[in-house]
From TrEMBL:
Signal peptide positions (record): 1-23
Family: Belongs to the bacterial solute-binding protein 2 family.
Periplasmic binding protein domain span: 89-342
Gene3D superfamilies: 3.40.50.2300
PANTHER family: D-ALLOSE-BINDING PERIPLASMIC PROTEIN-RELATED (PTHR46847)
Protein's UniProt keywords contain Signal: yes
Name this protein carries in UniProt: Ribose ABC transporter substrate-binding protein
Record lineage: Bacteria, Bacillati, Bacillota, Clostridia, Lachnospirales
Stretches that traverse the bilayer: none
Amino acid sequence: MKKSTKKLAAILMCAALAGMSVAGCSNGEPETKAPETTKAAEETKAETKAETKAEAKTETTAAAKSESAVNMADANVKKKDPSKHYKFGYTCMDGTNPFFVTIEKTMREMIEAQGDELVSVDPANDVTLQITQVEDLVSQKIDAMFMNPAEAEGILPALDQLKEAKIPTVGFDTEVADMSYLISYTGSDNYNAGFVCGEDLVKKCPNGGDIIVLDSPTMNSVTDRTNGFLDAIKNHNFNIVAQQDAKGNLEVSMGIAEDLLQAHGNVVAIFGGNDPTALGALAAANAAGIKDCKIYGVDGSPDIKAEMASGTSLIEGSGAQSPVKIARSAVNIMYSYLNGEEVADRYPVETFLITSDNVKDYGTDGWQ
């Protein structure tokens, strides 16, 4: 069977929810054991301390900045001069990703409601193309720019062009390598989004096991999520048998997962850096007949929530975020700046875990 045919079959299988899910690990608590040696007790104490420290760091960072995030995401900033017309540029790493589709749609609605214009481009995860597209937007004499980079480092030449043209830029969702180019940034607490997935896996698989990680090293947001996940599972007997770049894309993820699952069919879990990656892994796992694996993503997308709500999916959880709040925050930041108001360097948006246990609280028809 050709690979393209295999992939089509896998997608259809995913859509049909063919495979019945069986719990990937024990859901019970670890068996209580008698006290061990002093050395073992000290190691356990050290592990607990490290975990608490990582968790405290995440919670402190989010708590310290949550007020500004809520105020800006929920604000309704109007431009000071209604007769002034602004042309905004918009670029994101992958315009076909439902997460970015929602961000672009929300931004466009807010901007057009004020009589302004949004010109959007899609580099399809190609930073070279993204640089060219930004250069074209500069030539169109845009007044300001919304930036989500395909590559944190690779996008710097485009930011140089924007800076030279004195075009203010608000970053969203994914940081750039040099944040001094931006007037402000808004995005999810990505580290925590991965951390809560790892916490859930540790709870549900107390004995550890082999896992696959599908990340995207060129995307800072995915790197932060992956780091959070890995920190949460550290020292809990998990063995990473493979860690590969899925580029945040469903088809790429599915192809990689197909190959990896042939060699590692007994993995207890797969972590994907975003929901499309997790759904690609799901399609591959279903096609391979995998019945005992927990798959995690990050986004909390309608598609991933529908999988969890079905009660028959290998999708175990998603570190959820809100593209609507990110979009609203970015637009309000921009109008505040153009009105001459002072804006903070950063406006974080909260993240949290959605599983089959609480998915009913968020619904499956749209984003939270």
